[in-house]
Design goal:
Helix content of chain A: 55-70%
Helix content of chain B: 25-40%
CATH architecture of the largest domain in chain B: 3-Layer(aba) Sandwich
Number of strands of chain B: 19
Largest interface: A-B, 45 and 61 residues
CATH topology of the largest domain in chain B: Rossmann fold
Number of domains of chain A: 2
Number of domains of chain B: 3
Shape of chain A: flat
Radius of gyration of chain B: 24 Å
Structural class of chain A: mainly alpha
Distance between the termini of chain A: 41 Å
Strand content of chain A: under 5%
Largest sheet of chain B: 6 strands, mixed
Number of strands of chain A: 2
Oligomer: heterodimer
Structural class of chain B: alpha/beta
Chain lengths: 261, 550
């Protein structure tokens, strides 16, 4: 039960996520995105085998961005007269701006949650191979993505190591300016390092015929099965149910082309 | 063994953006089924040769092909396609992290098959065969969780699946701990035992490979062929010539030479026979383990956990390092050696316990580039000298002196990133010495160095130690431990498994296994010889042999 979503074809999941994102772009009320976030949570955590903590952690940075949306819209939206909710120094938040901000902030978070549910419930190799074979992703880009996936943690460790090395040398930034130059100073060796690593891995791939491949075969079988179509259909049914509930409950609001609500 | 598997004729090749050719007028035959060892000082073009043989140069990496030809399996590599070349010759490179592409073992082995459009139905059999040949049966962890030695065997399996007739291994053990090195070289020895495949091996740890090598070729620093011949010709008849090139010489051969023999022992058992025969009665070396008793660094129950890590990198480590000591820290990759070094230097704040330093402690990182903060070589030294609070005149005087001692005088205005391996290492040590430290901690100081550069560095460390400073070196090089360390600390999963004289560690099989170590060839030979003739002392390294025979 808990691996139900994880077993589905990753390309199908990504396709569904893309479709739902397009639907969500039109939604500006706060309740509908909340329901989508709940659905994504259930799909990833209850049906996808992703741990709740891990899912929350990957969602956290998006939540910060969403709060930014709320703030900008509340404060910088064109204010209607007598619409001020609160005042903080030079900043005045308007009620309509705040509502709009919360709506699109949650919308962004919902799109993020759905995409993350699709990615986090998928084995990375299967995700890339399925995207290559079922969604016409170029294999050059696909394998570059896999290499990057292996690479990022290494680059992070490498940067920490370089900063440590430079601190040991007595580069201890005090002022903001020297801190900026120290950060930059760490980037030069990091770039030298990353370039060297990337070159080496490219050479190693070519040495195994990657550059010369005219047509490739694949070891991983990635068939899209009836179960995958049933899954896609279920997602659409859930979407329809959420939208219908919004209409019945009267909270669903779609974007009308203006930047306030 | 009839006919050449590969033939290089009159080749001169220059890398893009370089003025000097990487290889000059090189002619070399690699016979069918032959196991050829390629030696050369760092920067002599060994890796370039590896890339030429499987067609990566010129098909995927461009270079100025100034003259000559490379023929592999009867075809000119410039005329053949990369697809056929890359299945004829397979290459395993130095660093497992930059040659494995996929996340799982089977995907990794399949990667080359996929590129060569092998039908899916044929893959399972070839993957299983490649796994069996490299001893990977039944291992199903993600690649990220494998040890370095196992990762290199995956790299080996991945090229074997393509059915190559030639294997080129470019320092496949350089990044591995002693146990991983043995694991990989044993797998290689099995693969080429029947001479069905030709092998070209670039390797520093010669004692492990000598038993399965047919011929030796050596390049000089300018990329010319300096020597080609049998191992016997290389290491016995022409040993002085190879030494002059700065390449590594097998330790067991050096031992035989010290015993006045012109034999080339194939392994420790061979050498043991020689020792038992020739060891002069009464010759022995007493090890001086007396220290000054004044500590420079003292760790008390130090623990350290990296943020987000599941287990502690260090757990209750207590030790002290005194003036006049050269302490080696050894253990498996990931046992916490570097973390301990950083904690001792004060670069990492211990999560628990305490570190006390009496005096200045400088740290030299494994990759010198990481420590460079300046645009010029002299600038690197000035940064440290200025931090010591010297005035301008004193800084310039000290910088000039340090450059002289590091042999970098002519390169004072050069960019540190453009230096050679050996020069970078000397500069990073010089910058540490610029701090006039009481203690010096070095992470893998001989990594990637040829024998000459390593020798110069070790002599410097010995001088500093004799001068009353404390030296700590983190290393996988157990010959270095045997010859230079006054004490060795063995780490196992973040705890101190051993702290004592190297001879005691090398006598203990259980401890060696626990710390992913293995007895160095010289120590093994003396152990076997001692068993045969009890008056032979159990020496562990060439330095002790020299002392005993003096």
């Amino acid at each position: 039960m808990s691996r139900l979503v994880a077993r589905r074809d990753p390309a199908v999941k990504l396709g569904v996520a893309l479709l739902l994102s397009l639907v969500l772009v039109l939604v500006i009320d706060p309740v509908t995105p909340l329901l989508f976030i709940a659905a994504a949570w259930i799909a990833a955590v209850a049906l996808g085998g992703v741990s709740a903590g891990a899912f929350a952690r990957t969602l956290a940075p998006l939540a910060v961005v969403a709060l930014g949306f709320v703030w900008t819209n509340a404060v910088f939206a064109v204010p209607a007269p007598d619409d001020t909710v609160w005042q903080l120094g030079p900043f005045a938040a308007s009620a309509s701006g705040l509502r709009f901000g919360i709506g699109i902030g949650l919308r962004g978070l919902a799109i993020g949650a759905i995409s993350l549910a699709a990615v986090r419930t998928s084995d990375p190799t299967r995700l890339v191979v399925s995207a290559i074979r079922n969604a016409r992703l170029s294999y050059r880009i696909g394998y570059a993505m896999l290499a990057a996936y292996r690479f990022f943690p290494i680059v992070g460790e490498e940067y920490a190591r370089i900063r440590l090395a430079q601190r040991v040398r007595g580069v201890r930034p005090r002022s903001l300016r020297s801190r900026a130059s120290a950060t930059f100073g760490g980037i030069v060796p990091l770039f030298a390092d990353a370039t060297r690593r990337a070159t080496r891995i490219a050479v190693a791939m070519d040495a195994r015929g990657f550059a010369s491949a005219r047509e490739r075969t694949y070891w991983r079988a990635t068939p899209v099965t009836a179960a995958d179509w049933v899954f896609a259909l279920s997602c659409l049914l859930v979407t329809a149910a959420i939208l219908a509930a919004g209409v019945a409950g009267g909270w669903l609001r779609l974007w009308n082309g203006r930047f306030s609500a | 063994m009839t006919g050449a598997f590969a033939e290089i004729a009159g080749l001169t090749l220059r890398h893009v953006g370089r003025r000097a050719p990487a290889l000059r007028d090189l002619s070399l035959r690699w016979e069918r089924g032959e196991r050829l060892l390629l030696l050369g000082p760092s920067g002599s073009g060994k890796s370039t040769l590896a890339l030429l043989l499987d067609g990566v140069i010129p098909h995927a990496v461009e270079a100025h092909w100034e003259s000559g030809t490379v023929t592999v399996d009867g075809t000119d590599t410039r005329a053949a396609g990369l697809a056929s070349l890359s299945s004829t010759v397979g290459v395993v490179f130095q660093d497992p992290e930059t040659q494995l592409v996929m996340l799982e073992i089977d995907d990794e082995i399949a990667f080359g098959l996929e590129n060569h459009a092998v039908p899916r139905a044929a893959m399972a059999g070839r993957i299983a065969a490649a796994r069996a040949e490299t001893g990977l049966d039944g291992i199903d962890l993600p690649i990220a969780r494998l040890s370095g030695g196992t990762k290199q065997r995956v790299a080996l399996a991945a090229i074997l699946a393509l059915g190559p007739r030639g294997l080129v291994l470019d320092e496949p053990t350089a990044n591995l701990d002693p146990a991983g090195t043995r694991e990989v070289l044993a797998a290689v020895a099995r693969l080429v035992g029947d001479r069905e495949r030709s092998l070209l091996l670039i390797e520093h740890r010669l004692d492990d490979v000598l038993p399965f090598i047919d011929r030796v070729a050596a390049l000089d620093a300018e990329g010319r062929l300096a020597f080609v011949g049998t191992p016997r010709e290389a290491f016995v008849d022409e040993m002085a010539r190879l030494e002059a090139l700065g390449v590594w010489i097998p330790q067991l051969r050096r031992l035989a030479a010290l015993l006045g023999s012109d034999a080339l022992p194939r392994d420790a058992a061979d050498a043991a026979e020689l020792i038992a025969e020739r060891w002069p009665a009464g010759a022995t070396a007493t090890v001086n383990t007396r220290t000054s008793g004044a500590s420079v660094v003292r760790a008390d129950a130090v623990g350290y956990r990296y943020p987000g890590a599941a287990r502690a990198a260090l757990d209750g480590v207590s030790l002290r390092v005194d003036r006049g000591e050269l302490v080696a820290i050894v253990g498996a990759n990931g046992a916490g050696k570097s973390t301990l070094g950083l904690a001792l230097a004060g670069a990492l704040e211990a999560s628990s316990g305490s570190v006390r330093r009496d005096g200045r402690v400088a740290y030299v990182f494994q990759y010198p580039e990481h420590q460079f903060v300046s645009r010029t070589v002299t600038g690197e030294l000035r940064v440290t000298l200025r931090a010591r609070g010297l005035d301008a005149d004193a800084i310039e005087r000290a910088a000039t002196d340090l450059l002289d001692r590091a042999g970098l005088r002519a390169l004072g205005e050069a960019n540190p990133f453009t230096l050679s391996h050996g020069q970078k290492r000397r500069l990073s040590v010089a910058t540490a010495l610029a701090a006039d430290p009481d203690g010096l901690i070095l992470d893998e100081p001989t990594f990637g160095q040829d024998e000459r550069n390593a020798g110069v560095l070790l002599a410097t460390l010995e001088d500093l130690r004799a001068d009353g400073r404390a030296i700590v070196t983190i290393t996988h090089d157990l010959a270095l431990v045997a010859d230079h360390a006054t004490r060795v600390i063995g780490l196992d999963a973040g705890t101190v498994a051993f702290d004592g004289p190297p001879a005691e560690l090398f006598a203990n099989d259980e401890l060696l296994a626990r710390c992913s170590l293995r007895r160095p060839a010289i120590a093994e030979a003396f152990r076997l010889a001692h068993a045969r003739r009890s008056e032979v002392p159990s020496l562990i390294g060439l330095a002790a042999v020299r002392t005993a025979l003096r």
